[in-house]
Amino acid sequence: MSALLRALCAERLKLGDTLALWLCVLAPLLVVLFATLMAWTNPAMAMNGVDPALRWRAFIDQPLSMWARIMLPLFVTLEAALLAGLEHGNYQWKHLLALPLPRGTHYLAKLFMLFGLVVLATIVFCLLILMGGLLIRNAPEVSLIGPLPLAHLCEGALATIAAGSLMIAVQNFIAVRWRSFPVAMSSGVAATMIAMFVPTDGSFGEFFPWAMSGVVMTGGVHQTHTAVVVGVIGFCIVAALGVWDFTRRDHL
Fold this sequence. Notes:
The protein is mainly α. Helices cover 76% and strands 0% of the residues. The model has no long low-confidence stretch (mean pLDDT 82).
């Protein structure tokens, strides 16, 4: 455990002021800004037919769905490629593997750092949603009345992270396994585009890693539960396979 903590501390130091860290703010800001402007400039479309008592939930669900279905998979793809690129670019893997640490800790450090960045971005995203809603709550025709549905927001955010765990593990494996930055990016972008056409209320969306986070927002209770369970179990399995592959390869 101490070896893993040391590796995680090293990963945090390497992040510094890099794009990977700034993306945790920029990516959620883009989604929330778009949703807030749409609700403010065109409230009739954003709140059409919504019970005034449920408008806070409607305002939250729209950007949360955009985040879960589109931005989160792209965010994970880019972050995984950037984190692995810190070592791929300057052949730093050789230096890391020469350190007196178990090989698997380096792989797990990358994976847990990626997961941590997703959690950080999700927290920022939730805070920005609340800020956006408070800014326009009294705008004409918006009328976000009633208490803030914090429980609903937290539940959706946590379920999104859990359902997207398998995708995080897969993208980390691809980014670490192959040196090419385009390979890591193209695989995630292509899978995200495919996920947009995968039905999230059927029997396949909750098993496709890049669509599972979107199932939380658009699927039923059964599909959401399945996506969360598959995501968490799949994360553990892929993480274990990734460590096994990383430790046995003489690739660096």
